[in-house]
């Protein structure tokens, strides 16, 4: 089943083309890597996949099974794109609980579980604004993983993580993959791409080239 379909998608910012005429499909249950130099358009590609950015021309179609009941917004998507998004005045636990209330699928126990799995051991009273870069990255990832989403879109998920934390996040990615989730992540590290992905999208001068790696 195709989860996300791009048909002739182009993205231009103030007359500057970032992506040109991209046609691709993201198939359920597969793990994709997105590679390319700084500024190639990797984050823009991920943002287009979940509607955070709209195409300048062409269309992005999300399978209706992955849309909310009004068929408007992606549902069961876990997204960590463009650096950590956090509420500076709340602790990790408090803000994940706030976010969890929106969909009401999980509660405190699951929030605590994901923080433990990701290894974010901030003191409860410490506010996110005082977190280190790696802690903020873990918070962003915890938010993406916490509802066990069917689709994960992760922009450079291993950035700023120490070795042990990187292994924890890789374990989480493997676990979601085994559970049948569809995963797309960007990385500048060939080893992560080799280890985790079935297919790789390489962005080159606005074009997206696909390389099948396995399966
Ligand atoms: N909101 C925006 N307004 C204007 N230009 C933008 C916007 N978002 C992205 N761009 C431009 O689109 C291009 C691609 O940016 P993008 O963040 O996708 O690159 P990237 O491949 O993720 O790079 P990096 O490896 O450095 O993270 C860049 O030239 C960037 O300046």
List keywords for this structure.
single chain, 215 residues, alpha/beta, 6-stranded mixed β-sheet, 3-stranded antiparallel β-sheet, 6 helices, binds adenosine-5'-triphosphate, ABC_transporter-like_ATP-bd, nucleotide-binding, ABC_transporter-like_CS
3D architecture notes:
- This protein has 215 residues and is of the alpha/beta class.
- Helix content is 31%, strand content 28%.
- It has 6 helices and 9 strands.
- The protein has helices at 42-49, 92-103, 108-118, 133-145, 163-178, 190-196, and strands at residues 2-13, 16-27, 31-35, 57-62, 77-80, 151-154, 182-186, 199-204, 207-212.
- The strands form 2 sheets. A 6-stranded mixed sheet has the order 5-6-7-3-8-9, with helices on both faces.
- A hairpin with a 2-residue loop joins strand 1 (2-13) and strand 2 (16-27).
- Helix 2 (92-103) packs across helix 3 (108-118) and helix 3 (108-118) packs across helix 4.
- The longest helix has 16 residues, at 163-178.
- The two termini are 15 Å apart.
- 38% of the residues are buried.
- Adenosine-5'-triphosphate (ATP) is lined by residues 13, 18, 36, 38-44.
- Adenosine-5'-triphosphate is lined by residues 13, 18, 36, 38-44.
């Amino acid at each position: 089943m195709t989860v996300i379909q791009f048909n002739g998608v182009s993205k231009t910012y103030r007359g500057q083309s970032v992506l040109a005429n991209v046609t691709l499909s993201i198939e359920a249950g597969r793990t994709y890597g997105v590679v390319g130099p700084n500024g190639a358009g990797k984050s823009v590609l991920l943002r287009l996949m979940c509607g955070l950015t709209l195409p300048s021309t062409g269309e992005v179609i999300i399978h209706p099974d992955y849309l909310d009941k009004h068929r408007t917004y992606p549902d069961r998507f876990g997204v960590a794109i463009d650096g950590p998004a956090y509420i500076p005045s709340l602790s990790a636990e408090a803000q994940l609980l706030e976010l969890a209330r929106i969909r009401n699928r999980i509660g405190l126990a699951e929030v605590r579980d994901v923080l433990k799995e990701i290894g974010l051991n901030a003191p409860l009273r410490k506010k996110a604004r005082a977190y280190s870069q790696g802690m903020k990255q873990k918070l962003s990832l915890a938010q993406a993983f916490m509802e066990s989403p069917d689709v994960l879109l992760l922009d450079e998920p291993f950035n700023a993580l120490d070795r042990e934390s990187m292994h924890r996040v890789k374990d989480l990615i493997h676990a979601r993959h085994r559970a049948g989730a569809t995963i797309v992540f960007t990385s500048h590290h060939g080893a992560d791409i080799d280890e985790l992905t079935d297919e790789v999208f390489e962005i080159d001068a606005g074009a997206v080239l696909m390389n099948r790696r396995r399966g």
